[in-house]
Design goal:
8-stranded antiparallel sheet, Immunoglobulin-like, single chain, alpha+beta
Length: 186
């Protein structure tokens, strides 16, 4: 998980701990949740390049996660791996994530951000347990649906009459348009 902390104050700040609270609001068990602890800091470029969990653990880990200080008017960025042991799949319609931090300016945990995943089936759970990752927007951030091109073939429609065809002489969708269609159809 990429995390950036900004210290806009005049004093040195200290992040003492992070945790990821993973809640299961649609389960029949009240207040069901697990706490995922920060384990490693990884090199984001190497992490993103590896599909196999054991490979990126071997290549991308920079070090164990540890508390850190932030100078005044400065920022720190880390890509953190959180882990928790899952003995049995938690197949549920909704998983709610809350990133929390403890820092030297307050006591207790402070909620930093939250987001949700919906319709978690057994196959998706197994993929997550084996190191897969899924992206979702934090609460309050617009979905990708707000970034669609409308109509999808807008650029083809604006092409001047008689203009020469593209390199393949047939209209092909860009990767961005295909990506947006996939997101829209989910």
């Amino acid at each position: 998980m990429p995390i950036q902390v900004v210290n806009s104050g005049a004093r040195i700040g200290r992040i003492l701990k992070y945790r990821l609270k993973v809640s299961y609001p649609s389960l029949h068990i009240d207040n069901a949740y697990e706490i995922f602890e920060p384990v490693w800091v990884v090199d984001r470029r190497l992490f993103a390049a590896s599909a196999d969990r054991s490979e990126w653990l071997k290549n991308a880990v920079v070090g164990d996660w540890a508390p850190f200080s932030i100078l005044p008017k400065d920022s720190v960025e880390q890509h953190i791996v959180f882990e928790q042991r899952w003995d049995y799949p938690v197949v549920t319609k909704e998983i709610a994530f809350t990133l929390q931090q403890a820092h030297d300016g307050r006591t207790g945990w402070v909620d930093v951000g939250s987001w949700k995943l919906f319709e978690i089936d057994a196959e998706m759970f197994a993929q997550l347990a084996h190191g897969a990752s899924y992206s979702t927007s934090p609460d309050g951030v617009p979905d990708y649906d707000d970034l669609q091109i409308n109509p999808v073939d807008l650029h083809r429609l604006l092409k001047p009459a008689g203009s020469p065809p593209g390199p393949d002489s047939e209209v092909k969708e860009s990767r961005v348009v295909r990506f947006l269609k996939i997101l829209r159809d989910r």
